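Work Package 3 committed the consortium to producing structural models of liganded targets before the mid-term review. Because experimental data for this complex are still outstanding, the team generated a predictive model from sequence and the ligand definition alone, so that downstream docking and mutagenesis planning could proceed in parallel. The input record is reproduced below exactly as it was submitted to the modelling pipeline, together with the SMILES string for zinc ion.
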Amino acid sequence: MENYDIIGYPHLVRLNPNIPWKTRGNGAVSIQLGRGGKNKTKIGEIDDRDIVSSLELTQDIDKSDYKEVKNIVRETVEVNARTDDENTNPGFVLLEKRSDFELYKKTVTQIVSIDETKSLLRSLKADFEGYKNCRGLIGATSAIAWSPSRDKTYELISYRQRKKWGSRRDVDSVSVKNMDISCKTTFDNYDYDNEHNRLVPNSPCPILYGIRGDDVKELVKAFKIVKSEPVDSWLIFETNQGTDNHLQKKNIADIQPYQSAIIKGSVVKNPYTIEGGHVIFAIEDYTGTIDCVAYEPTKGFRNIVRKLYVGDVVEVYGGVRRHPLTVNMEKIKVNHLATIYEKIENPVCPNCGKHMKSKGRNQGYKCKLCGAKNDKPSITEKQRLIQPGFYEVPVCARRHLSKPLKRMYR
Ligand SMILES: [Zn+2]
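The resulting structure, written out as tokens with the ligand in place, is given here.
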């Protein structure tokens, strides 16, 4: 077989984050192969070799090479997949043409079955192989269906030397903060409030760190700023991370569990804190009401939520939990603040030093002892401690797909 080019960037595609049986990040990758034009760009380094890709496809791979390509993919999956883990159900798919974008849309927002994926693949005459329960076929098919043409970001992923796998990662936080400050188009690098280095994954996987951003050139600059243990290899992916692709505008009555929604409504139950530190309030639209939750790991975001009152108009962004049916908030937009009145403390009589009695709503006060009067109003407009606008969970609690406010205002 002759050598082929990687066309464009490899794609790292995140799928519905609310699927209960997902693997950790619910991600899939896809690569387009073919013969490319002369216009090439470096996208990474593996074994001290530059990895380059072609920006445009000039010719598809020869049919006679399909089998060998498939063998390479199969071997790669079988050698590297952790099939002993019960949640790892890999699959790979080879398709001559990109599958329909709507298929990706469905997999990022809803639940897609293995059976429907297999029958679709058969109808597309795809070459595919699934392992164990074959669930990985769903992600693999969607990763091909995703197109970066609408919205996209990039992630530069660096990998550890094999001997380091499973051990504690050494990535210098000070250098990550420096990178965060000097590379403005990167996002979700460091959580200053919670002192959390978000570049570094928690799982014992071979990834050393990932830098997310909007600009490829700046990612390479950022990569040079971050100080760490030796990097074995690195590669830049084009991704749907940070795009809010999982969210759909919904009326409350139409909300389904395991989806993610943007719901506009007015607060009908003031925020309260339950055991575990989770903060809950309820919103209502013309179709129903639903509870919205800021879970404990969202840290300071809960203090924003606690400032809401009944009557405020908000748009809530988040994943829908099944039991009970609640919205796990990722972001909130405060559209309108209600005017809240509060009763003020009864004034003190200047003669007697005792609190005066109210004569009735808005009729002033009178001292029971000496009869002195005061016509101060008994209620006052409460000063609100929150402004209209967007608020998001801190970086340490951010989901892969959530669009950071930093990207929304760019
Ligand atoms: Zn008095």
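Reviewers should note the following from the model. The helical segments are 66-80, 101-109, 114-123, 136-145, 173-182, 216-225, 301-305, 405-408. These observations will guide the Year 2 experiments.
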